[in-house]
Design a protein that fits this description.
Layout (H helix, E strand, L loop, with lengths): L2 H25 L8 H10 L4 E5 L6 E6 L17 H15 L8 H4 E8 L5 E9 L2 E12 L7
Antiparallel strand pairs: 1-2, 3-4, 4-5
Length: 153
């Protein structure tokens, strides 16, 4: 095989593979949120103050937060949660109302509280493990954070 015919073969092969690599690139692009209506409801319920980051590959919410001093979703009418149990209750209500944005359809059946920790600033972090039919989901973990004023942030 001459150098020219080898180069021509390479060009033909490259041209043949180009459409499939372009299609793969589109498939790896940004996904739409899995629950856009839930995100819109969360933002509306917070008076436009909630900020939602969506994972590009899965479409699930990666991070939800509120602006300092602003309410987060349905919790704008609730009292502060002083005890760990009250914080778990508020977190559960939040995940029941807005769990769809994270890919959770039944918060009480799919989430198990596995840890409560305090930080140096006085905040409380509650860690939940996602389960499916009683089995833990690999890397399926959600956390809720309460600030020093016992408000879900």
């Amino acid at each position: 095989m001459t150098r020219a015919s080898g180069l021509a073969s390479l060009v033909v092969l490259s041209m043949a593979l180009a459409p499939s690599t372009q299609a793969q690139g589109r498939a790896k692009g940004k996904r739409e949120p899995i629950d856009p209506a839930g995100i819109a409801r969360l933002i509306a319920d917070s008076g436009g103050e909630a900020q939602v980051s969506v994972h590009e590959a899965t479409g699930a919410a990666r991070f939800v937060r509120r602006a300092r001093g602003k309410a987060l979703g349905l919790l704008k009418q609730t009292e502060r949660a002083a005890s760990s149990d009250a914080k778990k209750d508020q977190s559960t209500r939040f995940f029941e109302a807005y769990g769809g944005v994270f890919g959770i359809s039944d918060a009480s059946g799919e989430l198990q509280a596995v840890g409560v920790a305090k930080d140096r600033q006085g905040g409380t972090h509650i860690t939940y493990r996602q389960v499916y039919r009683g089995l833990p989901v690999f890397a399926g973990q959600l956390r809720s954070h309460f600030d020093a004023a016992d408000e879900l942030v």
